[in-house]
């Protein structure tokens, strides 16, 4: 599938990374980057000039079912231009543009991305591949001078426990073992207890420093999880666990672990004594090592509790069928789902389709495990510290949440502060059964970064390095303050609700912090563990402040925080025009009416010209000591006059303490 004598860079050049430059001229032009967008018309011209790869792509995209799929995204433009008229191929070519994804960003797949030329939001992605000949299967090599259209070994299947799926999983593991450094050692020191599953037996064994490979299971606890290890059944579980008593999710995970020739699996419900607080405390701290040293973590993504099947049937092969490309023997094309796996991306929240990924504890299970295989309602997905993949092709390695985390925390390639803001955003929207788990369920991820010397001291959910930027969070949805102390009010951990950092992506390029932090301390229950439960903390700083009266406009409700309008005490002028404080949490009407006066502290000119003020309430009986109540901000581009007026009220104050 060569390119004739074309020596100049071709539109398809990024599809040639595996070609030999001595036989394929385009191999010399591969950059590994996205080539500029081009039109369908230009692609056809390239094919007419003799590029066989472009000609194959054109033929693939003109398969009737494929053409119908990409025509959907230009239909509005067609109708708007010539109402009621069916447009021909030339008109399609004028309105559609495409690009080739570099294969190394999509796990070797040859992906063509198409969109209407008037919009960037609605894409159609297509995989193009060839089926190797019998000779190629036997020799593992191609006689073709060009391998731009490569083979695709694994495809969506109708059952996630099929033999093809098992082979796919083994291939992912083998590739990770051979190409990556995700796993330091195949055999690790076993956790305190593991489930021994070799030789047909299933029982709990206590370990004493033995080394072996073991799997872990991430699953969602049900409302009444009864199959647990307790003081009363500990000896029984050590003797034998009858197969018929084991929940279905656990049975399937054990079956899969056996297929991978692994003797042990760790499952939290039966490897920690659930009615022994001391055992739970001790083992919960060790979870970061349990998952961090596992050979593979099995994630029951779609299951709401342990009674559900780990494996499911899928209609992906029917929804995204493969079509043979005419006049190209052995070449096929299939539409690939687009943006269906946002919950695995860096800049998206958790997806309600996956109950497991809404669980707070699972975030560290996902990020600490070197390798995770997810079983959801449609297919099997893979994440390791280096790559991500799935059977439909909708997940890619670029901008993957776990991979970006590893690049920052493990390899120091990107800013820890930016990565931690992303973690805070993701973790804050997850569910926890107990408020007391708020700090503990994040501790493993924090300990990983701390152990590698990133970010300075860990301080109740934020890092000492770039601290001021990390304190500029805001609440995005329902939010409450827990009954028990969890963290200082300046930490996003102090309130329960989804938080956001509008300054996250490029804060280091454009934000200008106005405050000067002079001292910060955080006290944990165990002094030697800075990631453990927090018992106190304070922040001392110098900054520009204005003293305001807080007028209660609306007391709010159980789900809605109160609304306050702020008035400058000295001048009687209002802060903002019809705007109010974005409160951090809901409160009773009685508490809201007690607020009365507040201090606004100018934090700085943040990214996108958002000028932020923290709203503080004085702590009774403690001089110059405050708690954070909320945030107030101006857009300098449209509210510069109001901003200047408020800054004119502000006076520099020193030794301000926030607890």
UniProtKB/TrEMBL annotation:
One Pfam match: HET
Domain Heterokaryon incompatibility: 214-365
Family annotation (InterPro entries): HET
PANTHER family per record: DOMAIN PROTEIN, PUTATIVE-RELATED (PTHR33112), HETEROKARYON INCOMPATIBILITY DOMAIN-CONTAINING PROTEIN (PTHR33112:SF16)
Protein name: Heterokaryon incompatibility
Species this protein is from: Colletotrichum destructivum
């Amino acid at each position: 599938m060569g390119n004739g004598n074309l020596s100049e860079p071709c539109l398809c050049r990024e599809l040639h990374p595996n070609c030999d430059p001595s036989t394929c001229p385009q191999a010399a032009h591969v950059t590994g980057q996205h080539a500029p967008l081009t039109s369908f018309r230009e692609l056809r011209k390239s094919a007419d000039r003799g590029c066989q790869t472009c000609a194959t792509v054109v033929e693939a995209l003109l398969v009737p079912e494929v053409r119908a799929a990409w025509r959907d995204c230009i239909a509005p433009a067609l109708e708007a231009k010539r109402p009621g008229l069916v447009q021909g191929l030339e008109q399609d070519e004028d309105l559609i543009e495409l690009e080739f994804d570099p294969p190394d960003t999509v796990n070797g797949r040859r992906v063509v991305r198409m969109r209407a030329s008037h919009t960037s939001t609605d894409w159609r992605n297509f995989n193009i591949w060839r089926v190797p000949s019998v000779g190629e299967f036997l020799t593992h090599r191609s006689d073709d001078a060009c391998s731009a259209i490569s083979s695709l070994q694994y495809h969506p299947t109708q059952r996630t426990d099929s033999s093809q799926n098992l082979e796919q999983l083994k291939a992912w593991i083998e590739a990770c073992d051979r190409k990556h450094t995700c796993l330091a050692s195949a055999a690790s020191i076993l956790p305190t207890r593991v489930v021994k599953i070799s030789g047909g037996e299933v029982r709990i064994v206590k370990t004493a420093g033995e080394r072996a490979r073991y799997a872990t299971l991430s699953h969602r606890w049900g409302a009444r999880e009864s199959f647990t290890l307790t003081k009363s059944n500990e000896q029984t579980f050590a003797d034998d666990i009858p197969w018929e008593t084991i929940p279905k999710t656990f049975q399937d995970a054990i079956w899969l672990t056996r297929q991978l020739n692994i003797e042990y699996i760790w499952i939290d419900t039966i490897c920690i004594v659930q009615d022994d607080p001391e055992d739970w405390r001790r083992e919960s701290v060790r979870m970061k090592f349990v998952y961090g040293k596992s050979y593979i973590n099995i994630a029951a993504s779609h299951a709401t509790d342990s009674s559900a099947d780990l494996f499911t049937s899928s209609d992906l092969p029917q929804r995204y069928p493969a079509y043979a490309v005419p006049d190209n023997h052995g070449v096929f094309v299939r539409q690939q789902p687009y943006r269906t796996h946002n919950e695995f991306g860096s800049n998206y929240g958790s997806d309600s389709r996956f109950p497991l990924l809404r669980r707070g504890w699972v975030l560290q299970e996902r990020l600490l495990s070197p390798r995770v295989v997810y079983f959801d309602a449609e297919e099997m997905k893979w994440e390791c510290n280096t790559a991500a993949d799935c059977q439909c092709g909708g997940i890619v390695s670029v901008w993957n949440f776990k991979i970006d985390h590893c690049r920052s925390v493990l390899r120091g390639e990107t800013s820890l502060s930016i990565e931690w803001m992303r973690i805070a955003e993701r973790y804050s929207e997850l569910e926890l059964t107990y408020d007391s788990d708020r700090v503990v369920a994040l501790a493993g991820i924090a300990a990983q970064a701390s152990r590698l010397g990133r970010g300075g001291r860990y301080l109740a959910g934020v890092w000492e390095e770039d601290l001021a930027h990390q304190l500029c969070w805001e609440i995005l949805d329902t939010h409450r303050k827990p009954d028990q102390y969890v963290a200082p009010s300046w930490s996003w951990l102090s309130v329960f609700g989804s938080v956001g950092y509008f300054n996250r992506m490029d804060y280091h390029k454009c934000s200008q912090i106005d405050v000067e932090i002079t001292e910060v301390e955080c006290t944990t229950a165990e002094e030697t563990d800075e990631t453990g439960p927090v018992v106190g903390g304070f922040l001392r700083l110098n900054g520009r402040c204005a003293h305001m009266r807080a007028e209660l406009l609306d007391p709010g409700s159980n789900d809605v925080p109160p609304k306050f309008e702020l008035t400058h005490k000295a001048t009687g002028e209002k802060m903002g025009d019809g705007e109010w404080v974005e409160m951090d949490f809901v409160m009773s009407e009685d508490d809201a009416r007690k607020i009365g006066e507040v201090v606004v502290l100018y934090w700085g000119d943040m990214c996108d010209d958002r000028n932020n003020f923290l709203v503080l309430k004085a702590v009774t009986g403690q001089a110059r000591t405050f708690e954070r109540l909320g945030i107030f901000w101006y857009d300098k581009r449209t509210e510069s006059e109001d901003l200047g007026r408020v800054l004119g009220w502000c006076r520099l104050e020193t030794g301000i303490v926030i607890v």
